[in-house]
Amino acid sequence: MNPRLSGPGAWVLYFVTAGMMVFILAPLAVVVAMSVSDSYFVAFPPQGFTLKWYVKILQDHEFLDALQLSALLALSTTIGSLLLGVPAAIALTRGAFPGQALLKGLVLSPLIFPALVTGLALMQLLAKMGSGDARLNLLIGHIVVTSPYVIRAVVTSLLLVDFNLEDAARTLGASRLRTFWRITMPQIAPGVAAGALFAFMVSFDNYPVTMWLANSQYSPVPLVLMRQLVNVFDPSIPAMSTVIIILAVIGVLILERLVGLRRAAAM
Amino acid sequence: MSSDTQVLTAGNGSLLERIVPRLALPAAWLAVPILVFLAIFFFYPAINLLFFSLMTQDAKGVVGPPLTGAHYSRFFEVDLYLRVFWNTLRISLITSAIAIVLGYPVAIVMARSRPIVSRTISLIVIAPLIVSVVVRSYGWQLILANTPAGLLNWVLLSLGITSSPLALLYSPTAVVIGSLHVFYPMMVLPLASALGKIDPNLEDCARTLGAPWWKVFARVTLPLSVPGLVAGFTLVFSLTAGSFVTPVILGGTTATMLGNLIEQQIFVVYDWPFGAAIAVVLVVVVFAINTLSMRLLEGRRLRALS
After folding, report:
1. In this predicted model, what pLDDT tens digit does every residue of A44-55 receive, in sequence order?
2. Residue B28: closest CA among chain A residues belongs to which residue?
3. 3-state SS class at B56
4. Does chain B have fewer CB atoms within 10 Å around its N or its C terminus?
5. Do A248 and B286 touch (CB under 8 A)?
6. Residues 6+ positions from B306 with CB-CB distance below 8 Å
7. What percent of chain A is modeled with pLDDT above 70?
8. Are B125 and A252 in contact (CB under 8 A)?
């Protein structure tokens, strides 16, 4: 659009905006700065420059195990929520049937439910069922919270699909499955990819569900970080945090490449 | 793909459809797996939790009948719990109010400036969303630390603005600052999208007719952006009310919120029914805000139609 911000009012707007950008970036910048501080306590200003805290956390088994667990968990969660979410998104956009709006409300409802309570309720059920494997419990809990993101992203892109192409393929004798793979899928691929990436990132960072379902043997990254925050005071905490920030930045760049960030945020 | 496999897959497909004789396979069936999954692992446990909050726990920790409302009356009668309840509402309300005031300028700039500026701002606003809440709250802990080694205190002391370090950390204020940082994007994004839909000519008209900028904002921009405002407010309020991490890292014992109280009851006191009751209270608060906002928007639409 054209620049239509001008006059003294505009300067106030730009000033506040610049201030908010500093506000948003400051805590992340401080964390990164402290992670290379050559001191035994996290204290401002950072001293000198060292990478020894990164060396330390790369030998910290608790952190490495957590990274591995989180990555595997996020990956399986992504696959699970794609398998459940993509068909659901098709159901929500193809043909009208009674109760479609209700269905949409139901499958998206984990989004407005406080995640903390979702996790608590699930823990109670799983404890009663005697499901002792924390990894499986975490997977179930994470799929509950991530599937709405997949559904929303895929629904958004399905609404843009040209129905005529599907009809043409069907008329020409292609099966439903084949039509889906060859006609629909290429059109919704960015939406599916964005949904998958959302699911991965939400699972990787999830705390409110994870806190109920993890145990001392299987603790994902956010939990381990939270635990160490209370016990460790050297710059290895900022170093771990920086690793998480870098992973997030990579995620953002992929998202920007795939669908564009503004569109992704609206999904 | 070779023509052989093409024929093969095409054949498979039609075979499949001959076996499952069209079944008219309405698309609705595709939602069955997720409905079953959510029914077992989301809806059932949620309803179960509600029942749990009405049951009694005996000395051995076994939860069962008789049904009782005692946990709820205890929650609303004991001073300590009530304080946590009001604390949660206050922190959520203040956070969303500040998010609105600071959200508009950024959303307006995002919606109305050159693409490059708008793109950069959205990148900075959206990117931190993906960084763990633990990391972001920790960053604020480093900034707000009460010793001279905290960033803010270091700056203030170095510049000679204060003579002794401020005690900001472990206060409700710190929780508001942290929550604002964590949930600010949830306000800016809906606002920017609502502002983007406003016809710029309307604002131009008002300006041409001599309205000062604040009047243009109050009479044209603000009313037309209400849907984004309400969506943002609902999100920020609900998410803040359900926080756990930020109050622990930035609030300490001074700013306990409902989420922390629930965790305490379950993991420390082992009082399951009471923990469940507090969880139900939290859900009711969040749903009430959601319903209220929805009503507000529908009322507006009806009035606009009539």
Report:
1. 777 777 777 788
2. A91
3. strand
4. C
5. no
6. none
7. 93
8. no
What residues does each domain of chain A span?
60-231
Q: What is A60-231's CATH topology?
A: MetI-like fold (1.10.3720)
Tell me the three state secondary structure of residue A172: coil
A117 to B38: CB separation less than 8 angstroms, yes or no: no
- Tally A–B CB contacts below 8 A: 285
A91 alpha carbon, distance to own chain's centre: 24
**B8 CB-near residues (< 8 Å, 6+ apart):** none
Enter the CATH code of domain B75-305.
1.10.3720.10
Which pLDDT does position A263 carry in this prediction?
67
Give the torsion sign (CA, A132, A134, A138, A139): negative
Q: How far is CA A132 from CA A66, A144, A212, A224, B263, in A?
A: 19, 18, 13, 20, 20
pTM over 0.90: no
| pLDDT per position as a tens digit, B189-223 | 889 888 888 888 888 888 888 888 778 888 888 88
Ranges of each domain in chain B = 1-52, 75-305
User: Predicted confidence band at B12 (pLDDT cuts at 50, 70, 90)?
Assistant: very low
Residue A118 C-alpha from the chain's centroid: 17
Q: Is the peptide bond before B190 cis (omega within 30 degrees of 0)?
A: no
Interface test with A, best of B48, B63, B112, B138 (most A CBs within 10 A): B138
DSSP letter (8 states) at residue B67: P
Chain A residues with beta carbon closer than 8 angstroms to that of B282: 114, 116-117
A11 Cβ contact partners less than 8 Å away, ≥ 6 residues apart: none
The partner residue sitting opposite A17, judged by closest CB among B29, B42, B121, is B121
Q: Scan for tokens 């050159």, then name that residue.
A: B114
Query: Is the pLDDT assigned to residue B16 strictly greater than 70?
Result: no
